[in-house]
Amino acid sequence: MIRLASKDSLSRTLSPDNAIVLQPASRLPYVLMVVVISILVISLTVAALMMEKQRQQERARVATQNIVNLFDQHLSDIFDKVDVILHAISHHYQGQSSNASLSTLNVYLEHQQAQLPELLNLRITDQNGVVRFGQGVAATDPVSLADRDFFIRARDSSADVVIVSGPVFAQMAQQWVIVFARRLNNADGSFAGVAYANIATTHFDRMFSAVMLGAQGAATIRTTDLAMVHRYPDTKGAVGSKEC
């Protein structure tokens, strides 16, 4: 076997059949080339995966925003309808001129509540906060709501606006609700009581259950001061809590 060496130190071995066999020193550039190509391929793969992840996150963000917008529109529609009903009750109540005509209020309230199935109940208190009219009201077992925030706000302000309060635990319904209330006036403008409507916080279950949130997904509704109204799939007893 004959060994030849060139001036540039490239070594090769000439076998009897004249085949050229590269020595380890000659393989180094090829190995480096393979390594560089491998690194380039890996880098491109990582970049492609990151771009795909960003696209997925953007699609998820857009989808979530669309769902939020739909829920916001749905809730706004319900709140607007509640306001219209309470406004109608206010005018109807103020138009009554005798106790005999007031006895028809329960029928009127029942008719108004039927217009909006989302309502848990629709009731009226007197000027002292005692619930007098509405479904489930018993004259022999009066319930006072004089200490409730919505009653106090309506009593102390003559503004003709709807008052939103809650979530609170309803004394009569024995469940968490959002309260919508409006001040009632006598013919002379003095305070006569409050007309109020309750929407159970569990009502939002039906909205959220129609959305594919995923195994780890959850949807939460909070008030402007971050009090929890409802969480789907499980409130975990945290309604009213301001903890995240």
Descriptive tags:
alpha+beta, Beta-Lactamase, 244 residues, 2 domains, rod-shaped, disordered N terminus, 23% strand
Explain the overall architecture:
The chain has helices at residues 24-94, 99-102, 105-114, 149-156, 203-208, and strands at residues 2-5, 11-14, 20-22, 121-125, 131-134, 163-169, 176-185, 191-200, 219-222, 228-232. It contains 5 helices and 10 strands. The strands form 3 sheets. Strands 5-4-8-7-6 form a 5-stranded antiparallel sheet. By secondary structure, it is α+β, with helices and mostly antiparallel strands.
Can you identify the CATH superfamily of the largest domain?
Answer: PAS domain
- CATH fold category name of the largest domain: Beta-Lactamase
Helix content: 40-55%
The tally of beta strands, per DSSP, is: 10
Q: On the 0-100 scale, what is the average pLDDT?
A: 78
List the helices and strands and how they pair.
Elements: E1 2-5, E2 11-14, E3 20-22, H1 24-94, H2 99-102, H3 105-114, E4 121-125, E5 131-134, H4 149-156, E6 163-169, E7 176-185, E8 191-200, H5 203-208, E9 219-222, E10 228-232
Antiparallel strand pairs: 1-2, 2-3, 4-5, 4-8, 6-7, 7-8, 9-10
